Amino acid sequence: MDPEAAPPFSAAAPPPALAPFPAPLRDPALELARVRAEWGGRADLWVFGYASLIWRPEFDAAEHRSALVRGWHRALRMRSRVNRGTPAQPGLVFALLPGGACRGVVYRMRCEHADEELERLWAREMPTGVYDARLLPCRTAQGVVSALAFTLSPRSESCLGRLADDEIVHILRHARGRYGSTLDYLADTARALRAQGVRDREIERLMGLAARHGLVQATGPRTASRSAGVSMSTSTPGSETSTVKAG
Question: Using H for helix, E for strand and C for coil, what is the string for the chain?
Fold first, then answer.
């Protein structure tokens, strides 16, 4: 995830046409006030992670569980010109878009610390108001919880249409920003999902595409990022109680 609004892609990797009337950016302070009001502040706060919030949450969590959200899907279609790319060569990050379903992780912030943690999370995800933050029902093995999720409007100027594989390969090969490359971001997300026992078919396809073009090492059913040295593993999904800090 990458909270950036961006100008058009570079000529090296032009995107499909955008919606004629892009969705406006939201005021981050007003959106934070709205989310606080919806949450209420009297109970623990749950947060849904579907990409970097799984492997770099940067907040304390009393508990985390595997979770399923229906009506939204994870897609590598959000333009990044700072974190995983540059204005000259924008990168891509995942966004939660309408339709389908998405498996990820929900984190529980204790009520007494949640407001402070929410401030930090907001500074990371919503400095420009590019996301539509909303509380979504998330199914876990222990029941349904309402969790804060950062979704993206298909009308956002940062939301791209489907890119051709050659355009994706170009981005994976060249896009790099202040937090690293789009390729490493993709590999880290694949690794984190596999560790949760989740096999995202589109992510696996993209990792296979990167392997066929020599960008990552393919090792049978497991793939590792050559540049990041990321190994892929699989474990049984489940729920556990822990304190989560950024790695």
Answer: CCCCCCCCCCCCCCCCCCCCCCCCCCCHHHHHHHHHHHHCCCCCEEEEECCHHHHCCCCCCCEEEEEEEEEEEEEEEEEECCCCCCCCCCEEEEEEEEEEEEEEEEEEECHHHHHHHHHHHHHHHCCCCCCEEEEEEEEECCEEEEEEEEECCCCCCCECCCCCHHHHHHHHHHCEECCEEHHHHHHHHHHHHHHCCCCCHHHHHHHHHHHHCCCEEEECCEEEECCCCECCCCCCCCEECCCCCCC
